[in-house]
Amino acid sequence: MTATAARPVSGLGPAASLTVVAVYGAAALLTAAALGRTLWQGVAEPRDALAFGLLIAVGELARWGALPGEREPAPLGSAGALAYALLGENAGRPTTHGVLQTLAVVVVAGLAGAVPHVARGHGPALDHMARRVLTVGFAAVCFQPLYNSGALRGLFGQSPCYAVLLLLLLVLTALCDAVLAALMLRARTRHPFGPLLRDELRALLHIGSAVCATGAVIALGVAVAGLWALPVFCVPLLLTQLSFRRYAEVRATYRQLIASLARSTEIAGYTPPGHARRVADLSRAVGRELGLSGPELTVLEYAALMHDIGQLSLVDPVPEGATALLPVAEQRRIALLGGAVVRQTGVPDAVAVVVERQADPYREQPLSARIVRAVNAYDDLAGECASASGPLSALERLRLGTGHDYQPEVVESLARVLSRGGPAPGGAE
Questions:
Q1: What is the pTM assigned to this prediction?
Q2: Quick check: 18 and 30 in contact, CB under 8 A?
Q3: Cβ–Cβ under 8 Å, residues 131 and 176
Q4: Directed axis angle between helix 46-61 and helix 98-119, to 10°?
Q5: Which residue of 63, 93, 157, 333 sits 20 to 30 Å from the alpha carbon of 193, by its own alpha carbon?
Q6: SS3 category, 244
Q7: CB within 8 A of 58, min separation 6: which ones?
């Protein structure tokens, strides 16, 4: 249940556009059917619909101050939507709202809660809205018809197996959402599907598990205690959301500190402006292309940001900071000095290892060091060839060095990333 930064569909390739259009189209059709049916037949059990609608709207309002990159920007809204999809009884009284009304309430409440964000220019991403419709619809389709037919009540009654069934349905729903999120990212970025799916599944162990557990507890609580259970069982998720927000803020601050440290070489005049950020962004894209994910990408990004920190030990700056043009012995000396500095910053040792070994022959390097070395050399060489043919000339020079200096697979992955429009080389951010 991530919020994915959306790019225009027109900027995607044909296959990517088809995936995005299919997801948006399915969500739009379900929304239209749900709203049309609800308007035509009226709202069943309006008190239930209003209570859950308010919960979802409040959850959307709680998105205020959401940090970029948070997997679930509105966990309370998602938990409320899933609970309404899996609601079978209210204080012992069977409910009859069904699948389409569930979707109608979720969409209307979500839009109502998003109005203030839209007014501020920070509305929810279309990907997030479409996936919420599809995942809530999946949960409702799996549960509501079976419950309304009496099959679930006859089979499980109020036994613990009923709670286990709800949890299993929520796990399946979360897995479907993870697959859908990975497919959307794959369509937009063309990164390998496997690492993207691993990232999504890994994220489910954090705020995603809290959302699923809260959804099941709310549905079970309302079935026994009625609508008064809604505010009671929302408190744990609100506290969890606050804890994750604090954790995300700490991580964002930590990342900013590393980026500021990386800019010290630019401020001191040792490297061109924007070089460290370009190398980090492009290295991360190449790492995705080669199948890295999660913590591996974080280590790669930090190492790429600080790969030139060893230049601060030089008496005379390297012209344009282009270490790729230096003799190998000098490159290794700067890399070892940089690794020693990085070890004093408190970042994981894996980051320092990448910085230290970025000048070794590629067969002796870990994959992250191979990526940093190739991308740094590309940016140095493309900056040296300040012409329209600079990027192509830089890639050709990298290919000529694949016998000893650069891993061929890394260079070709870099070429594919650049062909899709990577960060601008040689000076532009």
A1: 0.77
A2: no
A3: no
A4: 30
A5: 63
A6: helix
A7: 76, 77, 113
> Half-sphere exposure of 328 toward its Cβ, with a 13 Å CA cutoff?
8
Torsion of CA 125, 128, 131, 137, to 10 degrees: -110
> For the range 91-94, what are the long-range contacts, defined as Cβ-Cβ under 8 Å and sequence gap of 24 or more?
91/222, 91/223, 91/224, 91/225, 91/226, 91/227, 92/223, 92/224, 94/147, 94/148, 94/153
If you count DSSP H runs as helices and E runs as strands, how many of each does the chain have, helices first? 18, 2
Q: Which two tokens stand for residue 363?
A: 């067969």
- pLDDT digit string, tens, across residues 135-150: 999 999 999 988 888 7
pLDDT band of residue 117 (cuts 50, 70, 90) is: confident
The Cα–Cα gap between 216 and 204 comes to 16
| 207, two tokens | 């705020």
Residues 6+ apart with CB under 8 A from 263: 276
161 pLDDT above the threshold of 90: no
Dig out the tokens for 89 from the structure. Answer: 């009884």
Residue 273, SS3 per DSSP: coil
